[in-house]
């Protein structure tokens, strides 16, 4: 008898659930008019009042001067001054971390030009400018690679001839063929371990940089943007290096 009452209870509960589901499914759906977000859309005054103190605080912080440059920092050309600068900052920050945590030196650094989203005009450099240049939360990664596996890196540049910024690297091609590849001015030693600093995006194969998969990726926990901000703040007057690192002879 108890089992019968139990089964009856379960059945009633099931019917009730089905009825509720049926009711929900039959609810009226009314077509709403799309609201266009433009200058005619009025602000929610109450909401504006709530966020205004936070906005003022954020604006004050974002507009603080962190450095200065006497030249426009651009991303144009195979050896752009902004690209070289940020690649050098990546190298220096990664090298400091690697010395402390791995007791090793970083040999070179490589970042992608697509990750640099805009330029910085000459004059005061404000914090907001760095956020505009690097809006992503990319992390600095150290990739430990054998000298033999670095051939993939050089072949990548020879094939693509793309201006992805590098530091402590010299890559020369002629008519699409690799003619010279150096790290710190020296030829690659096939049996040597090299430590290359890059972003997590590239270390995971972004921009088709599959050659990094042959190495061992080591996380630093450092955000690229935070690193750039730190180094801009360290330098009252930014003077980017304009040396030739990518030399694509006969590039079309």
TrEMBL record:
GO terms for biological process: nucleotide catabolic process. The keyword Signal applies. It holds the Pfam family 5_nucleotid_C. Residues 1-27 form the signal peptide. One of its GO terms (molecular function) is hydrolase activity. PROSITE patterns: PROKAR_LIPOPROTEIN. Residues 68-213 form the 5'-Nucleotidase C-terminal domain. Keywords: Signal. GO terms for cellular component: outer membrane-bounded periplasmic space. This is 5'-nucleotidase, C-terminal domain. It comes from Chryseobacterium shigense.
């Amino acid at each position: 008898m108890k089992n019968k009452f139990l089964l009856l209870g379960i059945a009633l509960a099931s019917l009730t659930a089905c009825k509720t589901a049926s009711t929900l499914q039959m609810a009226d759906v009314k077509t709403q008019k799309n609201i266009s977000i433009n200058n005619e859309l009025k602000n929610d005054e109450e909401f504006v009042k709530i966020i205004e103190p936070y906005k003022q605080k954020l604006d004050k912080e974002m507009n603080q001067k962190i450095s200065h440059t006497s030249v426009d920092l651009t991303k144009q050309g195979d050896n752009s001054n902004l690209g070289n600068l940020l690649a050098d900052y990546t190298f220096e920050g990664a090298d400091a971390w690697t010395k402390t945590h791995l007791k090793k030196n970083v040999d070179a650094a490589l970042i992608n030009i697509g990750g640099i989203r805009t330029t910085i005009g000459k004059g005061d450099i404000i914090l907001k400018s760095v956020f505009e240049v690097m809006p992503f939360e990319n992390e600095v990664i150290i990739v430990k690679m054998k000298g033999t596996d670095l051939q993939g890196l050089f072949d990548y540049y020879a094939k693509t001839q793309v201006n992805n910024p590098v530091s402590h690297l010299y890559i020369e091609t002629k008519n699409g063929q690799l003619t010279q590849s150096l790290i710190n001015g020296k030829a690659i030693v096939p049996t040597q371990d090299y430590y290359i600093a890059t972003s997590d995006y590239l270390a995971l194969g972004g921009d088709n940089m599959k050659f990094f998969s042959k190495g061992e990726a080591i996380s630093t926990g450092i955000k690229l943007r935070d690193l750039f901000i730190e180094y801009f703040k360290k330098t009252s007057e930014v003077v980017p290096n304009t040396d030739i690192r990518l030399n694509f002879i006969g590039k079309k």
